[in-house]
Write a structure and sequence with these properties.
The structure is a single chain. By secondary structure, this protein is of the alpha/beta class. The protein has a domain of about 130 residues: ABC-type transport auxiliary lipoprotein component (Rossmann fold, 3-Layer(aba) Sandwich). The protein has a 5-stranded mixed β-sheet with strand order 2-1-3-4-5, with helices on one face. Strands 6-7 form a two-stranded antiparallel sheet. The two termini are about 35 Å apart. The relative contact order is 0.19. The N terminus is likely disordered.
Length: about 190
C-alpha cells in the first residue's frame, strides 16, 4: 500500500513538469506595478489598521513561500532569461456595511438590524511568457464579514462577532495562495 501511495505521489510531482532545482526548473520574474484602490465607508474599522504596503507585502511574501511548493524559483537580478513574468497590477480593498437582521423569534433582539462590516480584497495580476506575451490575467477576490452571535451570557440578545484586526493581511494571504494555484495551472498548460 505504501508503495502505491509513493508511486502516485511521484507520478503527480513529475507529471507537472517542474523540478525544484537544476535543469528543467522554471524561473519567474515578479514585477510590482501595484495600484491601490480603496472603496470604503466613511470611518473604516479594519482597513486602516495597517498601511496598504503591509497588505501588499503580505501578498508577496505568501506568494513567494508558495512558489517553492510549486517548483518555481524567483529570478534574481542577475538572471538574464526568465521563463515567466508575473506582474502585480492592482489591489482593491473594500470595507462596507453589511446589515444583518436577527431572525430568532425567541430573542428580544428579533427583527433588530445590526450594521456588520464586510471586508473584501481583489488582487489583479498578469502572467507573461519568456517572450513577453500575455498568457492570461489572474484575478483573485476574497472576503470575510462580521457575523451575529447569540450572547452566551444573555441568551436572549445578540452581538456582533468582530473580525481580527489583521483581516486584510489574512485576505492578502488567501489571494496569494489562489493566485499561485491559478499560475501553476496556466503554466502547466504552456
Amino acid at each position: 500500500m505504501k508503495k502505491i501511495i509513493l508511486f502516485l505521489f511521484l507520478a503527480i510531482v513529475f507529471n507537472t513538469g517542474f523540478k525544484t532545482t537544476g535543469k528543467g526548473s522554471k524561473t519567474l520574474n515578479f514585477v510590482d506595478k501595484a495600484k491601490y484602490v480603496a472603496d470604503t465607508i466613511e470611518n473604516p474599522y479594519y482597513l486602516l489598521n495597517y498601511p496598504f504596503e503591509v497588505y501588499k507585502n503580505s501578498f508577496i511574501e505568501k506568494l513567494d513561500s508558495r512558489l517553492g511548493k510549486g517548483k518555481i524559483t524567483i529570478a534574481d537580478s542577475e538572471t538574464k532569461v526568465v521563463d515567466y513574468t508575473l506582474t502585480l497590477t492592482k489591489i482593491s480593498f473594500t470595507e462596507s456595511i453589511d446589515p444583518q437582521t436577527v431572525n430568532d423569534t425567541t430573542s428580544e433582539d428579533s427583527g433588530k438590524i445590526f450594521p456588520t462590516q464586510l471586508c473584501s480584497m481583489k488582487v489583479e495580476t498578469a502572467l507573461y511568457n519568456s517572450k513577453g506575451e500575455l498568457i492570461d490575467n489572474i484575478t483573485c477576490i476574497t472576503n470575510d464579514h462580521e457575523v451575529l452571535a447569540n450572547n452566551k451570557k444573555n441568551h436572549g440578545t445578540y452581538l456582533i462577532k468582530t473580525l481580527p484586526d489583521n483581516i486584510f493581511i489574512r485576505l492578502a494571504k488567501i489571494c496569494a495562495t489562489s493566485t499561485m494555484d491559478e499560475l501553476l495551472k496556466k503554466i502547466s498548460k504552456n
